[in-house]
Structures are given as C-alpha cells and as structure tokens.
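Exercise 7 asks you to align residues with tokens for two separate proteins.
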Amino acid sequence: MSGSGLGAEAARSRALAVLRIRSRALAVALLPAAVAVILLVGGSTGHLPGTGWDLARRLLTPLSVLVLLVAAAVALVVVRARPAMSPTVPIAEEAAPDLYRMVRDLADRLDVPAPSAIALTPDCDSWLEDRTHPAHGPPPAEEHDDIAGAGRPSRVRTPAAPVLVIGSPFLWWMRVGELRAVLAPVVAGTGPSAHPDIAAARRFMQGLDAAVAVTSEPRRGPVLRGVLAGVGWVARLLLRGCREHAAEMERGVAAAAAERAQAVDYGLRIVAQEQVGLAYAGWDRLLTRVALPAWRMGRWPSRLNAGVVAALTELSRRDRLAEGFASRLGERPACDLLEEPGAVDEATSLLAARLFHGGPAETGPTWSPVPWDDYPEEVVDRKWRTDAARLHRVLDALHVPSTPGEPSTPDAPTLTRVLAHLTTPPAPAGPLPSAAPALSTAPTEPTAPARPAGLDAPPTGPAPATGPTPDDEDLTGTTARSAALAARLSAELAREGAAASAVPAAATGPEGAALPGTPDPAPLRDDRALPLFPLQPPRTARELLADHITAMVCCAAMDTVGAAPGLDWLDGPTLVLGGVRAADLSPQVLTLIEDGDPSALRLWLTRQGIRPEKPVRLV
C-alpha cells in the first residue's frame, strides 16, 4: 500500500469494513435463492420427500425470486445512478502546462500517483474528487470532460487517479511556492486513494448515495415511485450501516496524506495557511458586498479572482495585521501558471454566479458580464436609481404627495418627499379627546394604511403582509410609517421577483456556458434548485427600507452636487463626494427609520451641499 502509517492502515481497515457490509448484503440477497435451490434439488432427487418439504418449496421459491428481483433492482440503480460531482471548470493540460508540471513534480516528491486532471472551483478549498464511476464516463464524452489532458476517453476501464480540484482564489492570491505548499497534503491523498480496497469502498458509497438521490426525485409515476421507494429504503439502510466506517476511512486517508506531506515545504506551508484564511475572508467579502449587488442587477463581474487580489490588497492597506502581506505581491503569482488566466477567471466567475446566486448558465440580454472599470456606472448607479424608482412607486401607491399638503407629482421625485413621509408628526401640545386621533389631518395614515391603487389588487397567491410580520421582527424598533413602507417595499420586491421567475429563462442553455474553459453543466443538471450555496438570507424589510433610502440620498447627491458612484473592494457600492468616500451615511438613515427624526440626515445633507427638494433622475 502506498504510504505506510497508522492513518493508511486505519483507512484500509475501515474500507474493508465497508466492503464486508456489501458482501453481507449480497449474501442476504442470495441466501433465499440458495435455500430454494437446495430444496428443489432435494425434491427432484428424492432426498427431501414429504408434504412439509413440498410446502417449503412452494413458499420459498417465489420468495427467493422476489428477493433476487429486489436485489437486482437495487444493484441496477446503484450501478447506473450518477454520483454527485462538484461543478468545476476543467483545466486542460494545454491550458496550464506549468501547473500540471508543478503538480506532477509535487507528486514525484511525495512518491504518489499524480492526479489525473485539474479543475478549478470558485471557492477557497482544494480536494481530490473521485470521478472513476462508470456514470462519469462516456457517453457522451463532451459532458464529462473534466479528465483534462486526455485526447479521447479510453474504451477499457482502468483505475484512474482522482481529479485535483483547486480553489480559484488561491491561484490569483497565492504565490507559486505557497500554492505548492498548500497542495502538498492534498496531492499526497492520491497515494491511499489508489489502494483497491479504498477505491472500491468509495465507489460503493458513491453509488449508494446516488441511488438515494435518484429514488428521492418526485417526478415519477405511481408504480415506479413504489418500486424506487423500496430501493431507496435498502440503499438508506446500507448507507446507515456504512456511514461510520466511511467517515473513519476518509479521516485515515487525510491523516496518511498529512503524514506523507510533512517532509515537503513544511515551513512554507505554515505561512501559506495564513494566506488561506486571508483569501477566504477576502473572497467572502467580495462575493457578499461586491458581486451580489451586481448579480441582483442581472450583471456578473467577469474578473472575480482578480477582484479578490484587489480586495486583499486594500485590506493590507487598512488593517495593520495585514501589513506584511502586500510585500509578497512582487513574487510570481500562481495564476501565471495558466496560459490564459483571463478566460479561466471569466469561466469561474460565471460558475460562481450560478452556484451562489442561481444565475443563468449563459450570457444574454438580462445576464451579461461587467468589467470592474464599468462597475460603478453599470451596477452602482443603476442599482441606486432602480431602488429610488421603486421607492417612489410605492409612495405613489400610498398617495404620498411630493410636498406635504400639495397634490402628488410623480414627475418630480424628490428626497424631501421621502423625508416628510417618514418624519413622525410632533405630539400635540395639550391633552386631546379620545376621538382626536380619528380626526387627524396627517397626509397619510401610517398605522393602518388603506390598500392603494396599483398595490391593492389581490395577487393570485397569498396576499403580501402590510405591516410587521414574524419574519420581520426587527421592524418593531421602527416607527409606524417606516414599518408600513418597509412592508410595502418587501411586497413590491416579492412581486418583481415572482414576475421575473415566471418568465422562462431564455438565457439558460442546456449545454452550459459557451466560454473557453466553461464549467461542466452535467453536475448542475442534477440540482433542480439554484443557487446551490446562497450567500446570504433574504434581506429583511428594515434592510430593504434602509437600502432604498440610502439609494435615494445617493441619487440626490449625484444629481445636485456632482457626486459619483464608486466601488469599495471591501464594502461594495459607495458614494464618492469630492473624491472622498462617504462612510457616515448609514447612521443618519437608521435614525430616520427608527425614530422618525430627519434632523441628523438633513444636517448631513446640508453639510454636503445636497439639496433634497430637487428632483432626481430615475431609471
């Protein structure tokens, strides 16, 4: 066995335990048939005469046939089911000869088989993935092309090493030596993985897991659903019996790989692990603060991996703990190991949008790439004006006048209109009769607003909430007008999302994105619900209201004092006033929402020279 050690021996013993469970299941399936054969042979030769033996033959023969049919069905589903495969961007050897050379040299130093191929994933992790299951092979070869570097799929099935999956942010942020040190324990895992017992146990577990997934699909006929229910019960029973052994087997493989990799770049690996944590933090921040707003606007940043370098470089400037990380940028980055890093970055960026947001697999009129230079104008400006337009549509539906006491003028959306509506009216000077609240002359009743035209039509589904709900418990700390407006915004946004989802996804092609190094679409077809990994829970009503008010303030600043939309690599869309990032706007907006007091926001507007009474340009 490759790699002697306690971890390798533990992994092999656990693999044998999994295989023993498989053998026992086979023996249980064959036992009734074996007994039935003995009874039939005994009856035909006269060795088992009598009524009792005849009754046993009549009962056991059909039972054994039934058990064999069930076992055959289970075996057929396990063999034919397609195991889950991580969505990746395959990297052919011609596209990254230096990267393949580095990985092979690393495998030679570790004395383990080299990975059969390399693929990238838009995540900060790296692992080995076994893709030797027959369902991962042809036909058709084009759909399962992650075994890069092989011109044609082999007709004869031979044992293949796992595919090395590398997190794409590592290639752009790490230096070549750091990447080699990080990949050493991963590549070392090909040694234990090559053992036939471990490989067989993994294939058996993958088949069971895939069989459970197949039997759980709802779109089946009643007869087939009943058959698959029995198959699924057997597969789950076997999975429960093997789960603990399989988990311990993987732990043993990891321990053996770590033990073997200790002699390779051990000192550099300690430093590289710090970069792993830093890359994870920067990648998460880039996706949630920068990429997510663009995805919601129907645009996907086409250079996410280059963006993580900019984000981490910015972090090194701001955070004293990261001061030493910028100095390493002068060394050769690992992305230089790719022949066309730009094309690979674009492919992984599109895959990231599909996995984390659920975007289409192809570009189209409503789903197009955006370079970083165009991000402020194409995403930030459009986002703010779209949110401001939605805010004023809701105010129009609530019959809120542009200026308190005057008729509504939708042609002139102003920030003053928003401030006046959210301002809590001053309390009366003296005590009022109990019926006084009913005689209030306020322009809009905030506590129980009537259903306005445009938003009051009952939808086909459940009616949207018009006030604080259990899902928006954070609205309890706001004013009544803020809560009502936030609920209306949530309902309007939900309607827009439902209308968008009802339109057929014309940009989603069955064969995936047509880009160089495009991700294999086959794993994505196995997952009905996208996104597979949502970045954030849906925004609360309070957050929606704060975002819309902030957008209105930014639109007023751009249209009255010449402010500009900007991109902050760590915080996302930002307002640039006089060449300086405006970072103190959020507290003023929250004060307006929670207390109904616009004085702090008005003071901020005055200090910046922004005129809230001027109309703004909407989308």
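Second protein for Exercise 7:
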Amino acid sequence: MQSAGLEKASHRRIAGVLGVLGALLALMLAGAGPASAHATLDSTDPRQNSVVATAPSEVTLTFSESVSLSPDSVRVLDPAGKAVDTGNPAHADGRGNTARVGLKGGIANGTYTVAWRAVSEDSHPVGGAFTFSIGAPSDTSVSATALQGAKADGLVAALYGTGRTVAYAAFALLAGVAAFVLICWPAGTARRPVQRLLMTGWTALLVSTVAVLMLRGPYERGSGIGQAFDLSLVRATLDERIGTALAARLLLLAAGGVFLSLLVGQLGQPPRPLPAEPAEDRRVDGGGRGADGGGEDAEDAELRELEQRAAERPQREARLGLGVAGLVLAVALAATWVGADHASVGIQVWLALPLGILHLIAMALWLGGLATLLVALREGVGAEVVDRFSKVAFGSVAVLAATGIYQSWRGLGSWGALTGTEYGRLLLVKSGCVVVMLGVAWMSRTWLARLRSAPAEAAEVEQAEVPEPVGVAAHGEDPVRRAQLDRQRAARESAGRERGLTPTRAGLRRSVLVEALVAVAVLVVTTMLTNSPPGRVASEVTAGAAAPAAGGAAAAPQTEPGRTVELKLPYDTKGRTPNAKGTATVTLNPARTGPNEVKLALDGVDGQPVDVPEVELAFTLPDRDLGPLPVALTPEGTGRWSGTAQLPLAGTWVVSVQVRSSEIDQTTPTQQFKIG
C-alpha cells in the first residue's frame, strides 16, 4: 500500500511538472515576436532626416558591425514610392560595415525614404528605414511592401526555426549517445535500439542542415517558400559566414558517418574469450596440491587476471582512440554553431567562442545521455552504468551553469534587460526549464538510491539467448513460416527486456523520461534565444508598440495638426546614480506629417534637469513597417536636446527614448501617439 501511494504521488508530481512546463511554453510561443536588429545603423550619408541642397549621387550607410548585402539590400524611394536607386549596393571602399548604392540622375526635390536590409555579422537578418530631403521636405506616401524590414515569410520562418531546433536536438542525440556508450556502456553499441539512436541523430542532423541551408536565402530576403530551390540564393548563402558553417557541418557529418561505423564495428564486438583451462590440468591440480596449493591458487588467479586484462586491452585502446576522435568531431561540429552566432561578435569573442563550444558539448552530454539512459534502462543495465552517467551529468550541469552565467552576462549587459527585452525573458524561461530538469533529476537520484539498495534489481539483466526454432531450415523456402518465426523471436526478445523492468527501474525510467521531455523544451527555447537580439533596443520598441494593440490598452492620443504635442515617458534604468530615474518629455511641433521640430527633456525625480552619458530618440510606425527613424539630437544644456523628425505618413506612431545612466544601466520607455 505504501509503495502504491508513493507511486501515485510520483505520478502526480510528474503530471504537475509537465503541466507547468506546457503552460510556460505556450505563453512564450504565443508571445514570441519576430527577431529584431542585431547590427545597428550608426550613421548615413546623407544624414538621417537632413535636408540637402542638391541631389546626392549615392547613399551610404554605416553599421555597428560587418554586414552581408544582397542585390536589393538598399532601396531609395521617391515621394511617390518609385525606386530611384541604381541597385546592386556594395561595401564602400571595401569596408564590411558599410553599404553604398548609387542614385539615378535628375531626381526632383522632396522627401526620400531609404529602406535597407542586410545580414549582420552574427548571421541574423536586419532591416530598417530612414528619410532625407532634397531642397525642402515634402509629404510622401511609401508602399508598406517596399519597407518589409527584416521580416521573413511566415511559413519560411516557421520551417527555418524548426530546422534549427531539429539540428540542435540531433547534435545532442548524436554526441550524447556516442559519449554515453564510450564512457558508461561500451556494450551498448551492440544493441539495436542504441544503434537506431545513433543513426537517427546523424540522419536528422544531415537533413536539418540541408533544410536550413536551402531556407536561409528566402528567410533573409523575406520571400516565399518557392525560392528555397533557387540555386542562386543557395550560392549566395554559401558566400556568407553561416553558409560556410553549414557547408563545414555537412563535411563533418561525412566524417561522422565513418566514426559511427568504427564505433559500432569495434565496440560492438564481444570481448575475446579467455582460453579454457584443460580438463587434465584441473584433475592434476585437484589431487596433487599440498601445502603449496594456496600459493599456486594465488598464482593462477594472478595469471587469470593478467589474461583478462590482455583480453580487454584491445577494447580499451579502441575506446581511447574513438573517444579522442569523437571529442575532436564534437568540438568541430559545435564550432559550426558558435562561429556563426552571438558568440562570434561583441565583446570578448576570444573567450565567448570556446565557452560557447563547451556549453553545447555539455548540453549534448546531458540531454543526449538522457535519451540513451531511457533505452539502457529498458535493456536492463545495472546500477553501475546509471552511476557512471550520474557523474557525467553532474559535471555537464556544472559546466552548463558556469558557461551559461557568462553568456547571460555577456548577452544582457544590465539587470533591466532581463525583464525588459525578449532575450532576457527567453533566458528566464530557459533557466526555469533547467531548474525543473534539476528537480526531476533529483527525483531520479532518489529512484537510483532505491535501485542500489536492492542488489537483485541493481544487477544487470542478462540478455536471454533466443534459440533458433526447430524447423527453420526446413521452412527456409516458406516466407510465411519465416515471418511467423521472426515474430515469435521478436516477442521473446521483448519479453526478455520487460523482465528487467522492475518497479524501481520503471520509476527511474519514468523520471528520466520527464527529464528528456523538459530537455526538448530547453532546446526549443535555446533556438528562440539564438534568433533574438541580446539586449537590443529594437525589440523593446516592437514590444512597446504591439502591447497596447494586443492588450486592449487605451487608444493613443490623437494629435491636432499645427498644435504642439507633449509626451511624458517615465523611465528607470535600475541604476544607483541620481540620473537613473526620472521622466523624459518629448515635445513635437507641429505634430503632422512631414518635418517636425522635436525637443527632449530629461528631469530627475526631483524635477531638476539631469544629464546622462547617452540618449537616443526614435520614431516607429509599426502598421507600415516603417522605422525606427532616429532623430539627430543637438545638446541645448543639461538634460535638454533638440532635433528634427521626419514623419512621412499618418498613423499610430511610437516614440522611444533610450536612456543610459551608466556603463551598464539603460532602459527604453515607449509611448504611442497618432498623426493625422
């Protein structure tokens, strides 16, 4: 009765864990938006929102990091929405962080919109728009289709994200299963379920890599699924950093196929049997030993031990060689992710790259090992194998914690970004999932302790030999009889495995299964993390713009053309300096389409002007995918700035003020208002 009660309580805990996890994932997947810019636009020529006397011959953009360009990366549109650029932008003077496109001759005065799209150095598509005027500002009507920004087609984005998730899971399965059999269970390579796991991981990684390679072009350019088979886009992708990484991964998978054949071929062989002692020697020994018999027995035992070591030596050497080869292969495969993602740009790249590789390998050892442990428990492995994996998992979790803390610090930059950005919120969800996994792992250790306390259950369940049924040869020509005998053999093998699944083993297996399911959630959130900008402001603006519309908040204030509009945005960077908290006041005049005079004032909690190391002002029109349009600010004293904002279209705009009060503390309050 007590055992049944404990089992029911365990079931309730497992069901509760899965319910909470499912709710968290549903909330995150429902609220996840498109990824924002990873590279930022530092400067332009002509300057953003500027008015030039004569038409320029070209437009040049300078970014915060190197970008890759496509034939339509930069488009310049006149007030009627007609393209006036010559196409095929290139890097200015060979500098990778620039984009330059020529303009057609004889263009008229008015306000022109520059829409740009590129691929940042960390392999994520970025986009935006800004305006400049020739002669004098004018009204402009630009097609929303021409300003797609960095948004990808919905189906392409979903398939691309799925491919990346499958690739992470396949790598974890492939590397984790190989490490499990090399470290914990060498005999497992001879088992068909383990071989199927290895082949599943290898095949899934191969297919997902090819899929990501083909979908990358449409994903970058925002085109449909039909462009996935465009060889020109595939060639363009191969010229980028992520394309090089994917091609290298395919080559490494070819080497991985050879490694798997050696792994199964060498470790899957039974150990060489020791030579049997001749019967005559046993009879002589049995009757002829006297006082020295004990010493001779010791010598015989030592000799047998030496023979045992000699018989096991080839497998030990094979495990060592395969282990070194597998480690090199795993590091190289992990580098194809790390070298084309967040770790490859930003601060301390020299440290972020190796720690990123360690993080991926530790993840694979833990999560892939869990999948193998599920199979091993069903196959009847002893407690010794589970103990070995428990030690490996503990080390993996320690490495994951250390490298994860560093990656979080590097990606967030401030405590405010933990809750104020999509990256930070996803990081919180991932941390929660890992905590849930650790809790379930603690339950698994409880089951393991019960397994150790029962010697009969702790021992490995021997695989029963399935004799060849009598009459197989006689019916060898009868396919019906052969199929019937094969089914009988499979049923006996399955029954043999189920005999090893005692109540304690079954409880341990259920607990490990829950760990594996939570691991799938961790992989999904990890993929979303790699596709989100680490602490960037653009996602904050998007979230601020979408929140009122989605949540049914009060409508944005309607401005009256020709009247001055004052918008107050409270801010709090969570810092400890006097300028960390206050109110940003944005004054807009005449609050209509076209050029507007903008004044920005920062006041502390005491109402006095405060100065900050950095402040940025931008306007976004989400409904038309326009912006962010930054405003060039001119200082006018402590806590006071002025500038000119070009608002070319009517609609619900979002003003955002990025305030940085110290080296690490910053925030970006936003507010909606209507023009027209």
